[in-house]
Design a protein that fits this description.
heterodimer, A: alpha/beta, Rossmann fold, 2 domains, six-stranded mixed sheet, 13 helices, globular, B: alpha/beta, seven-stranded mixed sheet, 11 helices, binds iron/sulfur cluster, oxidoreductase (chain A)
């Protein structure tokens, strides 16, 4: 195992290359620029291509084109670029072409604050493209080491599900410096929980079977299999059709190949949930403060637990079976995760939201809010950041 | 089915979905003739398409591998694909004037700048016809369309001293030609030259749309009248557009994929560019 001290941006780059990424196309944007810079330095050393595109749409579509030709590809951006991915992301979803997408979230809306962490793209990461009729896979790292593991995992899931997979990080993960372990042996790989799948080529002639099965290779062009790959609703051969019956088969496959195999995707951490009267819910960097707050609350004898979502979409409703008071802790002022938790929590539960943006909450702030909720006291709201939902 | 259609078209996609009398079929046909005369087989070409009539109507007709991009994005897909394909595979793209010269123009210019090896055939039907007939940036001045009911008033890319191909030349394209689909063998010869150029080539093929341009701008759907107007305006001797080979600098600039491969090789050894 190689032990280094590095950023999340470096971890993501190393992981992508380890997973077999040989093309990166991107457009510089804080705080994801370093991924592009690292890629420009490292990819040529493994015979891979770095391309700086004319804009974000082009970046992603260049990745789509390379992936359609059989290469593993990745792009990385922040919120203002992520929204521009809407078109090519949809193309990859519908054409069932694997690509890995990294979004390092910063403070919004729009350009907002470049160098401060936010969590404003929770829903955008679910509904990045238009037209609906799809399901998507989103993973959320909370540390530099996890950014490494989840980037590798994103490539793995992208191949098996032939779909774009999003790594939804935040500025603290990508800019933060921490110890990073890199695998050197097969045993290291097992220990770090890393898996790779090679790109396989679909032999045709049917490229889009009407099934939710996974591990069906994507269409790869250039092998003269008669592969047809497009944004149109495809028949089984990939031809465009206006027939609703084919559209239904297509949408059914896009949705259920992911939902029916979600056991491969679902990942979460739980702390003291079994007897908790109150459960804090979070993802990404804030979950590290939340974990400390949960431990501190337990030390004070409070029945407080925590859930950290590692995979965000498909949303893990099954984690919310306990009737309790829920508090989501998020890096935004408007409350996004809280809406899903409110929907998933059983009847009789209460749902609250703690928002902070651009900086992490403190353990003391969280404990104060937890105490008030447990004592049924009204929350001392400052602005919108703490409220009964 | 004729010989070329049998050789290159998917039987279920022939004769295609273009309107009766549409000049698009002639444009498509010119490309097949050029491919055939060069001895290209289905496995030698990956065929991409854009949006609009030419995109939709030519997608997946090629028997070999084929792809389609969203509005104006097919040039980016082709740029990525170029790196994954063996250099000897040809990429042909059939796209419309709106796709290439308007919504995708930035990407088209960048593909030209990089000299990405692809042959872009612009099937120019003088506006946005698949959406019902709105003006585009090659619609003749004064033409009435659904969105220029009092006549096309915007400066466009092919009149009043503008020439979109000149912009592409400045951007670095290495082969540029323009024809109408009624120009007989000349477009076929240009497309062959375009296919032989290892770099960014573009051939603009102007063709008559009978259903929308004919009805809205010319006031007739009558094939003979539409084609007659078209011949008078764009045919040999007419001063509508400069036709023929506009720029031939085949092989004069390094091709994108070759350039990036050689950069990568040198950089991998630690050599500076
Ligand atoms: S609308 Fe016009 S350009 Fe389109 S297929 Fe019909 S005739 Fe051709």
């Amino acid at each position: 195992m190689k032990r280094t001290f590095d950023t999340g941006n470096a971890a993501i780059t190393e992981a992508a290359i380890w997973a077999g990424c040989r093309l990166f196309a991107g457009y510089p944007i804080t705080p994801a620029t370093e991924i592009a810079e690292n890629m420009s330095r490292l990819l040529p050393q493994v015979g891979g291509y770095y391309l700086q595109a004319e804009d974000e749409t082009a970046s992603f579509h260049i990745c789509n084109g390379a992936a359609m030709g059989g290469m593993k590809a990745m792009t990385a951006t922040s919120g203002p670029g992520f929204i521009l991915y809407a078109d090519p992301f949809g193309w990859a979803v519908s054409s069932e072409i694997p690509v890995v997408v990294v979004n390092s979230q910063r403070v919004g809306p729009v350009s907002g604050i470049t160098g401060a962490p936010g969590q404003g793209e929770f829903y955008l990461s679910r509904y990045l493209t238009h037209g609906g009729n799809y399901e998507t896979i989103v993973l959320a790292p909370a540390s530099v080491q996890e950014a490494y593991r989840l980037t590798v995992r994103a490539f793995y899931l992208a191949e098996r599900f032939r779909t774009p997979v999003t790594v939804l990080a935040d500025q603290m993960v990508t800019d933060g410096w921490e110890t990073l372990l890199l695998p050197e042996t097969a045993e290291d790989e097992r220990e770090l929980g890393l898996e790779r799948v090679e790109r396989a080529v679909h032999p045709g002639p049917d490229f889009y079977p009407s099934t939710d099965a996974i591990d069906i290779p994507p269409v790869v062009l250039g092998h003269n299999t008669g592969g047809a790959c497009s944004d149109w609703t495809p028949t089984e051969r990939g031809h465009d059709t206006e027939e609703v019956e084919w559209q239904h088969r297509h949408a059914w496959r896009l949705i259920h190949k992911i939902r029916s195999n979600r056991a491969l995707i679902d990942e979460a951490e739980e702390w003291f949930v079994d007897d908790a009267e109150m459960i804090l819910v979070s993802y990404g960097t804030p979950s590290r403060v939340v974990k400390s707050a949960v431990l501190a609350a337990r030390e004070r004898g409070l029945k407080v637990g925590g859930i950290r979502l590692v995979s965000l979409w498909p949303f893990q409703d099954h984690l919310f079976t306990r009737t309790a008071a829920y508090l989501t802790v998020e890096l935004n002022w408007d409350g996004q995760l809280v809406r899903e938790v409110q929907r998933a929590a059983p009847d009789g539960s209460r749902t609250h939201f703690f928002g902070k943006c651009g900086e992490l909450p403190s353990v003391a702030e969280l404990l104060e809010t937890v105490g008030k909720i447990l004592r049924n006291e009204p929350l001392a709201r400052s602005g919108w950041e703490r409220e009964a939902w | 089915m004729d010989r070329l259609a049998e050789k290159y078209f998917r039987p279920e996609k022939y004769p295609g979905t273009a309107c009766r009398g549409c000049g698009l079929r002639l444009a498509h046909r010119k490309v097949l003739e050029a491919a055939d005369e060069l001895g290209l087989e289905t496995e030698d070409v990956v065929w991409g398409t854009g949006i609009g009539c030419s995109g939709r109507q030519t997608f997946a007709t090629w028997k070999g591998d084929t792809f389609a991009g969203t509005h104006g994005q097919v040039y980016c897909l082709a740029t990525g694909l170029r790196l994954a394909l063996p250099p000897e595979k040809r990429i042909i793209i059939t796209a419309g004037d709106g796709d290439a010269f308007t919504i995708g123009f930035n990407h088209l210019l960048n593909a030209a700048r990089r000299n990405v090896d692809m042959t872009v055939i612009i099937c120019d039907n003088l506006g946005y016809q698949s959406t019902g007939g709105q003006y585009g940036l090659t619609t003749p001045g004064g033409a009435r369309t659904d969105s220029s009911p009092y006549g096309m008033w915007e400066p466009n890319w092919t009149e009043d001293g503008f020439d979109v191909l000149r912009i592409l030349k400045e951007a670095g394209a290495t082969f540029l030609a323009r024809h109408t689909v009624l120009d007989g063998q000349a477009p076929v010869e240009s497309i062959q030259k375009a296919l032989l150029n290892r770099g960014f080539s573009l051939v603009q093929l102007v063709y008559p749309c009978v259903t929308h341009f004919g009805v809205h701008s010319l006031g007739t759907r009558n094939l003979a009248e539409v084609y007659d107007w078209f011949r008078k305006r764009y045919g040999a001797g007419a001063d509508g557009l400069a036709t023929g080979i506009i720029h031939d600098a085949s092989g004069s600039r390094p091709e994108f994929g070759a350039r990036l491969r050689s950069y990568t090789e040198r950089a991998g050894k630690g050599d500076a560019a």
